[in-house]
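so my prof wants the structure for this chain in the tokens format not the other one, which i didnt know existed until like an hour ago. anyway here's the sequence
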Amino acid sequence: MKLASVIVLASLAAGAAEAQELNLYTSREPGLVEPLLAAFTDSTGIKVNTVFLKDGLAERVASEGESSPADLLMAVDAGNLADLVDKGLTQPVESEVLAAAVPENLRDPGNQWFALSMRARVVYAASDLDLDAITYEDLANPEWKGRICIRSGQHPYNTALFSAFMAHHDAAATEEWLTGLKTNLARQAGGGDRDGAKDILGGICDIAIANSYYVGLMRSGKGGEDQKAWGEAIKVILPTFENGGTHVNISGAAVAKHAPNRDQAVQLLEFLVSDEAQKIYAEANYEYPVKAGAAIDPIIASFGDLKVDPLPLTDIVKNRQQASELVDRVGFDN
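here's what i got, hopefully its the right format
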């Protein structure tokens, strides 16, 4: 082969290597995703083109059809990931790396999506309250009448919890429990999770139901001095179901059905469950890692050992619609 031909082939090969990239569609906030993607590009040389979508991820990909440039779809909430599968927008991934890192109950049984980080649905309690343990079932007990704060029952964080309750019990028991929980509210359901901590400090309620990672955002001072005071006014209890563990929801990702850069998408998915990426999740948003042994932020670690409920998330999300209907039936938000 002539020297000129060798040079041309070498140049083409180098150009192809430099051109490696993938397209990520995500509903996650840029501030969390960008550090992960920067670390991935530094590690692999693969460029990530990112489309941030606050809403309508499934609708966007479905409308683009077979010509969609999307390679990896990243979302918050197991229900959103299940919707992508139900709409035929994903494809299975067989990966020893992902199977080893992501527990079976935190991934699709057909390997269509995988959890990447977790947030627990916990109880905030006044720091001076004599309470060290509680079950989700206990929250409907009469002793808590007029003492609980919570955001809207129709918020996805809560419909996911109520769906999990239904998976452990049944619809009738869940309706009865929701009725008891509503009776125990100190104020109308509403606001955000951090408002629960604020209202505990203000003496409106004694406990609140909220997500774990907000405590990190408050106590770290990232939300300002007022929120830091809210975070310091509470202690966190990891509730469990009577016959289970603590309810968690997730962020996760799936490879798009028509991914033009499938191999690179799988590489990114595998990177996101590495020790390096799991540490970034923990530091950037105070989330729990899905990979056993990965670093946990000290604020979150201070809550104690998290015993994740073993029920498959795919079983829980099947109850979302019925749980939402029960919320309206008992007038939870009224």
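also thought this was worth mentioning. The CA atoms of residues 36 and 280 lie 7 Å apart.
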